[in-house]
Design goal:
Elements (H helix, E strand, L loop, with lengths): L5 H10 L10 H10 L19 H12 L13 H13 L10 H11 L7 H12 L8 E6 L4 H16 L3 E4 L9 H10 L4 E8 L9 E8 L4 E2 L1 H17 L4 E7 L2 H4 L5 E8 L3 H7 L2 H19 L13 H6 L5
Parallel strand pairs: 1-2, 1-3, 3-7, 4-6
Antiparallel strand pairs: 4-5, 4-7
Helix pairs in contact: 3-5, 7-12, 9-12
Length: about 325
């Protein structure tokens, strides 16, 4: 890695869905380590944490998924669900089902991959699960993840929480006024909550005042050839609703492979509500009425995610009062 110049590091970070800084931080160093493994380079198995990570694990997950074995999300991490899928595959081809992906399992996998073609089972599974949960928010578990040490972002989360509670959703915040869990703790909390959706709030910053606007991020990795279908749809809904209801500049939606999005099992998004380095954006979010508009836009985006296409409304037109009139509340 010491031989790479800044441009090469930036290119690598961009290809892996990481923050593009040109600096090899801990996250980038781990990504370099994952990228060096190709399927067949080593035997894969479930280990006591830290779990095995690498592009070879992602390739294994992708191949199993194409053949209909449920690995869950293709995240390049050899966890319990991946082990269970390997066991199921081994049993289906008459290999000892020990959950370890050694030479014999890899050879059988490669042989079958040549003759089996699939669609996108993970994407179809994710979309079907989302549809089967129905339109009402009363049975949804939603985790809100406000950024650390930002009272205005925390207030947006509280306003969103109040509106969701009024519509019958179960809502959990990953932090309170005084506590500040680590990212790992926030991910674990979300997963333990069996959340239907996780929304992370933050503000971006830049070296000068030029950058401003709102951007939304969902899990996606070009390197692993995967992205969250529901996460991408929700990110699009959030971005469109906020931009339709406010004058924040549209900085679009983006696929990223940050751990917060990658390791959270529920469809997840991160929303950057303006730039802390932009006086214009700071003035906006400092207004109570503006934060109310953001909260309403978020709740409407959540509701639109669960509405059937024929029941959906145009961006920026649906109101919380409409949800109450329609009986989509407890």
């Amino acid at each position: 890695m010491s031989e790479l110049n800044e441009a090469q590091i930036r290119s690598f970070q961009q290809s892996r869905g990481l923050n593009v800084t040109g600096v090899v931080d801990a996250v980038t160093e781990r990504a370099f380590e994952e990228a060096r493994w190709k399927l067949g380079d080593r035997s894969l198995n479930l280990q006591v944490p830290p779990l095995m990570r690498g592009d070879d694990v992602a390739a294994l997950q992708s191949r199993l998924t194409e053949m209909g074995f449920d690995c869950g999300r293709v995240d390049g991490i050899y966890g319990q669900r991946t082990e269970a899928a390997v066991k199921e595959f081994q049993q289906s081809v008459g290999i000892v089902g020990d959950g370890k992906c050694g030479p014999g399992t890899i050879i059988a996998l490669l042989r079958l991959t040549r003759i089996v073609s699939g669609g996108a089972p993970t994407a179809m599974r994710e979309s079907a699960t989302q549809r089967n949960r129905g339109p009402a928010l009363a049975n949804k578990v939603i985790v809100l993840n406000p950024a650390e040490d930002d009272s205005l972002i925390y207030d947006v989360a509280l306003r969103t929480e109040g509106r969701l509670l009024a519509l019958g959703a179960s809502v959990f915040l990953t932090r309170g006024i005084s506590n500040n869990p680590t990212e790992t703790e926030r991910i674990a909390f979300t997963n333990q909550s069996n959340a239907d959706l996780m929304i992370s709030f933050s503000r971006d910053s830049y070296v000068n005042e030029v950058a401003h606007g709102v951007a939304t991020y969902f899990y996606g990795s070009d390197a692993h050839g995967i992205h969250s279908i529901v996460g991408e749809r929700f990110a699009s809904l959030v971005q469109r609703e906020i931009c339709a209801r406010t004058d924040l500049v549209n900085c679009r939606t983006h696929a990223m492979a940050w751990d917060l999005l990658r390791l959270t099992r529920a469809p997840s998004v991160q929303i950057d509500l303006g730039y802390a380095s932009s006086p214009i954006d700071v003035e906006r979010i400092s207004r109570s009425d503006f934060r109310d508009v953001i909260a309403e836009a978020l709740v409407i985006a959540i509701q639109r995610l669960y509405l059937a296409s024929e029941d959906d409304a145009k961006t920026g037109t649906l109101r919380i009062s409409d949800l109450r009139k329609a009986g989509i509340r407890r």
